[in-house]
Amino acid sequence: MKKIFFGLATVLLVILIGSGYTWYKVNYGGTAYYVQINKNGKEEEKITSDSSAKYKQYAYDIDSYQKDGKVKRVDFNTDHNLRKEAYLKLKVNPTKGVISWEEVKKSEVPKAALEKLKE
User: Fold this and answer.
1) How many CB atoms neighbour CB 99 within 10 A?
2) Which residues are registered as beta bridge partners of 73?
3) Does domain 31-118 have CATH number 1.10.101.10?
4) Structural contact between residues 8 and 54, judged by C-beta atoms closer than 8 angstroms
5) CB atoms within 10 A of CB 85
6) Distance separating alpha carbons of residues 34 and 116, to the nearest angstrom
7) Distance CA 74, CA 106 (A)
8) In sequence order, what E strands does the chain have?
9) Which residue, 2, 47, 74, 95, has most beta carbons within 10 Å?
């Protein structure tokens, strides 16, 4: 009886961990894309809903490339204008779009993506 209970508990635990991991990957996971900033972002003025305070955002609509060179058009906003000629690594979620970005060195951009960025 104890063996059956521990067996069922183990199976249940594996199912819970697997479904939790799957949920996390769907909501917070993404694919890496690379871009190079060549122009200023489009300045937009936004209003917060809480205090009606105004703030600026900069919108970017740009082609991005995976490590194998596949292209994807992405758009994202930042609270400051990004440095021209900067290389960025974007994390793109299929349902949420760009969920994070970080500046990377040119040497960290995969070769196929770098070749597409130079075109």
Assistant:
1) 15
2) 63
3) no
4) no
5) 9
6) 10
7) 20
8) 31-36, 42-47, 54-65, 71-78, 87-93, 97-104
9) 74
Rounded CA-CA distance 42/117 in Å is 20
CA 59 to chain centre: 15
Q: Where are the domains of the chain?
A: 31-118
- CA angle (103, 38, 65) in 5-degree steps: 60
First to last CA, the chain: 67
Q: Which pLDDT tens digits describe the chain residue by residue (119 residues)?
A: 888 888 898 999 999 999 998 888 888 888 999 999 998 889 888 766 677 777 888 999 999 999 998 999 999 988 888 999 999 999 999 888 999 999 999 999 999 998 888 86
With beta carbons less than 8 A apart as the criterion, state whether 71 and 63 touch: yes
**Count H helices, E strands: the chain?**
2, 6
Helix, strand, or coil here: 95?
coil
- pTM confidence score: 0.77
